[in-house]
Specification:
alpha/beta, Rossmann fold, 7-stranded mixed β-sheet, 21% strand
Length: 264
């Protein structure tokens, strides 16, 4: 045990001051620090605060810059260890940077539709799940943020509603085959460019099931056109939008892409 503690202490010293820790060691140290971080959640602010911490503990500027480069790459990939902490922090905010009411696009697309089994992808605090449950849908939601889902379940309990929540990433959740009458993805940050993922989603819809997606589009206008239309061409498209609008996530003007499509 004494030898283990000595090795652990030596490793911590390597990270805080001199030496060149591996990329994995850099990331583990950052995640440990981020658990106690109390500043704004915006990635540039997080990186600036961590860089200041490194320099304040004696890390030389070139090495600090290298470590920040490692973190920028890892954070862009949104590994689960960071993403869960990141979204937990957002969902605990008193004034969260997202619309807490249900997606207006979703509300339009399900109006008059017979309730059935619904899946809320990356459900967060449950704004869409609660809306659907109120309308009579049997709702399952999944997310990596346990704090977000705890808030959703608490709100459901207060309203006398039932939700099924599952802690899982997009890769881990089992969509099943012909399971859902409705699948909702609003700012879920799924990899819609991945044909295998799109097939999982389409296979999991029941015949007549509806897929509703809302998220960020390509603001440059130089990327592939009509990505969602092409990607879900095997479904019957009921509505498609690609335009600038105020986003529910971030509450800022952005290029948004929306689609509602039904499985025949």
């Amino acid at each position: 045990m004494t030898r283990f503690l000595a090795v652990l202490a030596a490793s911590a010293g390597l990270l805080i001051a001199g030496g060149t820790p591996s990329d994995d060691e850099v990331f583990r140290d950052f995640v440990s620090w981020y658990k106690t971080y109390t500043g704004t959640f915006a990635p540039p602010a997080v990186q600036a605060a961590y860089e200041a911490r490194l320099k304040g503990t004696g890390v030389e500027a070139p090495e600090a810059a290298r470590r920040i480069g490692v973190l920028r790459k890892r954070m862009a990939e949104m590994p689960r260890e960071f993403a869960a902490l990141h979204f937990d922090r957002i969902y605990r905010m008193e004034a969260p940077p997202f619309r807490t009411a249900a997606s207006q696009f979703l509300a339009r697309m399900v109006e008059g539709r017979k309730p059935g089994r619904a899946l809320d992808v990356a459900m967060g605090q449950g704004r869409n799940s609660l809306f659907l449950a109120t309308a009579g849908w049997e709702v399952t939601g999944y997310d990596i943020s346990e704090d977000g889902m705890a808030a959703a379940n608490a709100a459901a309990a207060r309203a006398g509603l039932k939700l099924k929540t599952v802690t899982a990433s997009h890769d881990e959740f089992d969509y099943g085959i012909a399971q859902w009458d409705l699948i909702v993805e609003t700012f879920a940050f799924t990899n819609l460019a991945d044909a295998a993922y799109r097939k999982r989603v389409m296979d999991s819809l029941k015949p007549g099931g509806l897929l509703v997606i809302e998220g960020f589009g390509d603001p440059s206008g130089k990327g592939p056109r009509n990505v969602l239309l092409a990607g879900f061409s095997d479904l019957r498209v009921l509505c498609y939008e690609n335009r600038d609008d105020t986003s529910d996530w971030g509450l800022q003007k952005a290029r948004l892409e929306r689609i509602a499509a039904q499985k025949d």
